[in-house]
Amino acid sequence: MILMYHNVDEKPGFNTVSAENFERQLRFVKQHWQFTDMDTYVRECHKNPLLATLTFDDAYYCLYTYVRGILDELKIPVSVFVPVYHVGSNNCWDEEEPGYQKIDTLSWWGIEELSKNPLFTFGSHGMTHVSLRYFTKEDTIKDLRESKETLEEHLQKSVDYYAYPYGQSRGFRPRDTRTAAGNRFQGRFYHLVETGQPA
Predict the structure, then answer these.
(1) Contact call for residues 132 and 171 (beta carbons, < 8 A)
(2) How far is the C-alpha of 118 from the C-alpha of 103, rounded, in Å?
(3) How far is Cα 184 from Cα 177, in angstroms, rounded to an integer?
């Protein structure tokens, strides 16, 4: 099972679950499934149906203020997918969505600090948070390479996972999967789709 979140705050709202409910949900899942990191999940999920992994899209500031403490207490690993161009900014890509609320993203300092925590793994969410379906193959390659290289430069760690912006199967084409796999993302690189399955 893959759990995917965006934002956690004191109260629920746009793409946001309350911190109280977030912790309650994690405690429930932990009672019935086995939380693990992304590497283990990708390697073993087909053999162990009780595995669960936690992910966050968009690298919002809540990871520093709310999420980190809860995960430290529960000892749950997380994979965070960063829209690189929007680091230290906000979710401007959602402005046309009904009920839109501005949510701040982590700065590079915040990302680098969290990356020192062994529970946190960072992956790419693209450069601009634009759906790959609107990109040419060349633009897709550029987006994948630049996002991976920029993250690795800041984190001084290998970045092996990529989550498609908008996380739905209609947001990419089969060739995008092959392109990502061919551009040094892990062979069975991870992506969030409506079925919640690894590629």
Answers:
(1) yes
(2) 25
(3) 12
The position carrying tokens 């946001």 is 16
φ/ψ region of 124 (left if φ > 0, alpha if ψ in -120 to 50, else beta) reads: beta
Do 82 and 59 touch, CB atoms closer than 8 A?
yes
> What CA–CA distance (Å, rounded) separates 113 from 184?
25
pTM: 0.87
E strand map for the chain? 2-5, 7-9, 16-18, 34-35, 51-57, 78-82, 120-124
Per-residue model confidence as pLDDT tens digits over 138-185: 888 888 899 999 999 999 999 999 888 876 555 555 554 555 555 555
Domains in the chain: ranges and CATH: 2-181 (3.20.20.370)
**Phi, psi angles (nearest 5°) of residue 7:** -135, 150
Q: Amino acid identity, residue 85?
A: Y
